[in-house]
Task: structure prediction
Amino acid sequence: MRKIRTLFIALLAGGAFLLPGSVSVPQARADGPIVIRFASLAPAGSGFMKVTKAWNRSIKKETENRVELRIYSGGSQGDERDFVRKIRAGQMDAAGISTTGLGMVVRPVLVLTAPGLITEYDELVRARTELNDRFSQMFEDAGFVLLNWGEAGKNRLFSMDEFAKPEDLKTRRPWAWKDDPVFAEFVRVIGANPVRMGLPEVYGGLQTRMVDTVAVSALAAVALQWYTRLKYMAKENFSIMVGAGIIKREKFNELSEHDQKVLLATSVRAAKANDSLVRRDDARAYASLVKRGMIEVDTSAHEVEWDAVAKKARENLAGRVYSKSLLEAVEKVVAGK
Result:
């Protein structure tokens, strides 16, 4: 369970282990390698950190020690809003962050988590692959380089009380991340009022019933112990939790053309290794929850109603979070057209 917890936190939250106040992390020595200060919430010894350390070894080897990562693990300060701000301020160089953090850098990327749009891994891979140049340019325009894409499991509904159709959630208190406009809109279309709070506050909110419904992966429900306060779990997921690795453009430009290619190629290999772990562990977490007595909710009998809510939410977000043309482009790719 601890392995699942640390892996999920690393991929979902993507925060940073940063020094307080105005103290900054030291740069590489003038006569040493170029050091990329990479932040992660993953504790030392976690699966994510093992992959990240292997990535660092590959970078050092393939650049002949001209470039290396200085990894800051076990994030202890700030949320993703603080984290992105500190990267922009030059206190860190790169990081792995969740969709929420990515949305703070390039808001339109949230289209990948639009309700009901992408529900299977192969759909997500197609969308990221075929639209990668378009997304990469958005990050370039924001002053970043997109290193890789990541995942954190299939996003599904969990609740303390029984549900089957959207109308059942109208009187619930669903949690919505403070910086996530996507699920909040989904909830509003249903007719419920989202309860905004940060990730660390959710467990306490479940204890007091300030919130009674959450949208999260099975991996997350186990990792964060939320499953202990919940009873029902949707069999069908309505999106996939995604993230990515980014580096500030100014730092990337310090590398030679050869070493830039090495950094990009090795980061993609590391991301694929992490994705394999996440997919496996999310499936195992789901099976584990069923064995523990979590009640599966088959929402397929009300598929038309759920699809209508998801479609309305996606349309409402177009023009506010992402463009209509981008939504249509993703829809086309997902449909295989």
